[in-house]
Design goal:
Elements: H1 3-10, H2 22-32, H3 35-38, H4 41-48, H5 52-58, H6 62-78, H7 98-110, H8 116-135, H9 138-148, H10 155-184
Helix pairs in contact: 2-5, 4-6
């Protein structure tokens, strides 16, 4: 796997990490002038929302970038994506296939992220929900979710929270050290 492919992959593009900014990755991709890599740019713009003005200022490939931004603008319009794409007002001789870019963009949108970070977040969320289910009722979990989302509670929810859920949360905090100490002890069997 080449350097560009590796960096595109780490940025969340399925074909192809990111030790540098997304803007630098796009600039480096433009320098290759390789259509296979160039087709990644609309998806990178969609996924990471880079500073396009910085890219425009720094690139020496303005015609190529202009063509790709025009294709990106059409893609975003077609897929109802609300990201502004600046116009370069540069005459372009670049002939890139919109349909190739569209096919690649659709493919990337359908791909489920396989990034380690994404998998870890899903795993952590699943564990959190499991532990919450062991201590709290469904209604209490709904109230906790509303509080996390900074939504206001109605009168009934607030009373339920202050009467039951808050007391459980306070007990969890108070018992943390005790639970750690007890859990680390070896349990003897008497049977």
């Amino acid at each position: 796997m080449g350097i560009i492919e590796k960096r595109l992959s780490e940025a969340g593009y399925q074909m192809l990490g990111i030790n540098e900014s997304i803007e630098e990755l796009i600039l480096t991709t433009l320098q290759t002038k390789n259509t296979r890599y160039l087709k990644a740019i609309p998806f990178l713009i969609y996924k990471h929302k880079p500073d396009l003005k910085e890219i425009i200022e720094k690139t020496k490939n303005k015609e190529l970038l202009s063509s790709i931004l025009e294709i990106t603008r059409k893609l975003f319009l077609e897929f109802d994506i609300k990201i502004d794409i600046p116009r370069l007002h540069t005459e372009t001789k670049e002939k890139l296939s919109f349909n190739e870019f569209k096919d690649e963009f659709e493919l990337q949108l359908r791909n489920k992220p396989e990034l380690l970070i994404d998998k870890q977040k899903i795993y952590e969320e699943r564990n959190l929900q499991m532990w919450l289910s062991k201590l709290f009722t469904k209604k209490e979990k709904e109230i906790i979710q509303k509080i996390l989302e900074e939504k206001s509670l109605d009168k009934t929810e607030y009373e339920y929270y202050s009467r039951k859920t808050r007391k459980k949360l306070n007990s969890i905090i108070g018992l943390e050290d005790f639970a750690k100490m007890l859990y680390s002890k070896k349990v003897e069997k008497d049977f």
